[in-house]
Specification:
Blueprint lengths: L11 E3 L14 H10 L2 E8 L5 E3 L6 H4 L10 H4 L14 H8 L5 E5 L10 H9 L6 E5 L2 H9 L6 E5 L4 H11 L5 E5 L6 H8 L4 E6 L2 H10 L2 E4 L12
């Protein structure tokens, strides 16, 4: 597991080091610049444009972040790059633009946001093509079994992880099935720890990070039952106030 042990080292800024979308919005070059300056690893999300360009964007639709109706996958990369996020100067960045900004200065944990196997045909290949030659620490992850399977099928050269949540036995069984693909780590909902699935992974030495930590309770839970946190809304470098 040495190829992914770095994921334990730094707190991971959820969608970059934004300020809860007040002035610095999620998944923007401004949020990524802020994370680099602070020395945090960066988590970000990837959607595909209609012309199969990996875009850094969380939602499947444009309403919440851009105030527009319609799906991300209905627009070309050229169109998406023109759209303002939250009314700020930041536009929707491509994965290439983000990589050109980060340049290996901090680790990247990249989540692929899938729809279904048919619509996601070529998604994995598009992302890996952009990543080819990038010099820096990168891990890829997804909630979507079909994307994880596709990453393993093409012998992804980067660590691959399961993004997951839940505590019901049937859910944990599905997670175990995904890990059996040969995955390297998991990013798990902090509120759903501890559980037998995560305990077993850690006993085997598989790194576990959590999402999304917004308070001291979840930070403490992370460092009790996992290895590192994906956080937002506070500065992990500042010691928490005593109760």
């Amino acid at each position: 597991m040495s190829g992914i042990d770095w994921i334990k080292d730094l707190p991971v800024a959820h969608r970059g080091y934004h300020d809860m979308n007040k002035t610095v919005w999620e998944n923007t070059l401004s949020a990524f610049s802020r994370a680099i300056e602070a020395g945090f690893a960066i988590e970000c999300d990837i959607q595909l444009s209609s012309d199969s360009v990996p875009m850094v964007f969380h939602d499947h639709d444009l309403q919440r972040l851009c105030g527009l109706a319609g799906e991300v996958r209905e627009r070309t990369a050229g169109e998406l790059k023109m759209l303002s996020i939250g009314g700020t100067k930041d536009k929707i960045p491509t994965l290439r633009q983000m990589l050109d900004l980060v340049k290996g200065q901090v680790p990247l944990v990249i989540e692929l946001k899938g729809i279904d196997a048919e619509q996601d045909d070529g998604f994995v290949e598009s992302v890996l093509e952009v990543l080819d030659g990038y010099e820096g620490k990168v891990a890829l992850m997804s909630f979507d079994y079909h994307l994880l399977r596709a990453l393993k099928h093409v012998d992804c050269p980067y660590p691959v992880g399961l993004t997951a949540e839940g505590v019901k036995p049937e859910v944990l069984a599905a997670h175990e099935e995904a890990m059996a693909l040969g995955l390297d780590f998991t990013s798990y909902c902090a509120a759903h720890l501890p559980n037998t699935f995560i305990t077993a992974l850690r006993e085997k030495g598989t790194p576990v990070i959590t999402w999304t930590v917004r308070d001291e309770i979840m930070r403490e839970r992370t460092y009790t039952y996992a290895d590192q946190m994906t956080f937002e809304g506070f500065d992990p470098r500042v010691a928490p106030a005593l109760a």
